[in-house]
């Protein structure tokens, strides 16, 4: 260094001054380096501290997001289970209510069918007894041809009645066949009644399937109750028409009228058979999805004598082969 050179030359004063300047300069540089180093260390520390703080905040934020997602998933799962639970409970309750209504409807249907069969069972023995009494009278009077004809019609009527009673629906032609045989039997002994069955040309009776034994009970009611103490000609007219997709059967008699029948003995039986038939029509109409009902009117409102039964028959068309 310069101070050592001065010292070798014997310039001690200059050597001292040079050393002192060196010392001052060296201390200055050392202090500057230390300050810079300290500043760098401080900056590094602050950066690391900020980085650590940022990492901590990021970790906290990540944990918060993760926890929020877990809670959201849990909430969604709970909501889903709640919805599934409500749906299951609704389905169970709906099924219970549906089956209760179905069982109630089945019970009601079975009750109507049973009552209809009971009503038929009450009518049939009476009809059979009367028919056999008439047949016995013909045999005793030696009316062989008439008795043979009567027995033939009676057996055919019994056969078709039994056949029709087994089926839910029968051909309209079979139903009319039974009604015609019933009327002819009632009329065979002394031609008491004038009757006619008219089917409109728009109806093919072999293509319509109808509930059995709907028309005959009203014909039986007319014969049994409509002509009490009536001496004049007794007439029954049965007409079938097809209008606006409705199969309409009208049964008209010239008897005493339904209003007068309600006041005589067995009037309740008429009401019962009508009520049962009405309920039966409602059930069959719902089953076939076709209109069906019955109305009974006294013909006095039309300035005529007797009763008018309007029967809208639920039906099903025979499927083409």
TrEMBL record:
List the GO molecular function terms.
Answer: DNA binding; phosphorelay sensor kinase activity
Query: Histidine kinase/HSP90-like ATPase domain location, by residue?
Result: 215-315
Which InterPro entries did the record assign?
A: Bact_2-comp_sensor_kinase, HATPase_C_sf, HATPase_dom, Sig_transdc_His_kin_internal
Q: Which Gene3D superfamilies match?
A: Histidine kinase-like ATPase, C-terminal domain (3.30.565.10)
Q: Is Calcium a UniProt keyword of this protein?
A: no
Q: What are the UniProt keywords, alphabetically?
A: DNA-binding, Kinase, Membrane, Transferase, Transmembrane, Transmembrane helix
Q: Offer a single GO CC term for the protein.
A: membrane
Decide whether keyword Membrane is in the record: yes
Name of this chain's protein: DNA-binding response regulator/sensor histidine kinase
């Amino acid at each position: 260094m310069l101070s050592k050179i001065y010292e070798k030359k014997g310039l001690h004063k200059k050597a001292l001054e040079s050393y002192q300047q060196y010392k001052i300069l060296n201390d200055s540089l050392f202090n500057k380096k230390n300050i810079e180093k300290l500043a760098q260390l401080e900056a590094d520390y602050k950066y690391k501290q900020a980085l650590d703080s940022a990492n901590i905040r990021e970790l906290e934020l990540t944990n918060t997001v993760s926890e929020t997602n877990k809670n959201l998933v849990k909430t969604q799962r709970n909501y889903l289970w709640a919805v599934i639970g409500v749906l299951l409970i609704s389905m169970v309750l709906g099924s219970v209510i549906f089956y209760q209504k179905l069982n109630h409807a089945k019970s009601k249907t079975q009750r109507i069918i049973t009552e209809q069969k009971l009503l038929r069972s009450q009518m049939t023995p009476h009809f059979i007894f009367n028919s056999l009494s008439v047949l016995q009278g013909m045999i005793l009077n030696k009316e062989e041809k008439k008795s043979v004809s009567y027995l033939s019609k009676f057996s055919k009527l019994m056969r078709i009645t039994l056949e029709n009673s087994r089926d839910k629906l029968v051909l309209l032609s079979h139903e009319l066949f039974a009604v015609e045989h019933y009327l002819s039997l009632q009329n065979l002994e002394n031609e008491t009644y004038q009757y006619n069955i008219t089917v409109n040309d728009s109806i093919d009776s072999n293509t319509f399937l109808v509930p059995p034994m709907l028309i005959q009970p009203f014909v039986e009611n007319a014969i049994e109750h409509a002509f009490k103490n009536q001496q004049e000609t007794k007439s029954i007219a049965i007409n079938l028409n097809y209008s606006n997709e409705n199969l309409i059967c009208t049964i008209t008699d010239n008897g005493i009228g339904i209003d007068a029948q309600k006041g005589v003995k067995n009037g309740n039986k008429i009401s019962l058979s009508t009520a049962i038939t009405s309920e039966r029509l409602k059930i069959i109409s719902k089953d076939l999805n076709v209109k069906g009902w019955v109305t009974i009117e006294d013909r006095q409102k039309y300035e005529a004598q007797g009763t008018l039964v309007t029967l809208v028959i639920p039906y099903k068309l025979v499927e083409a082969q």
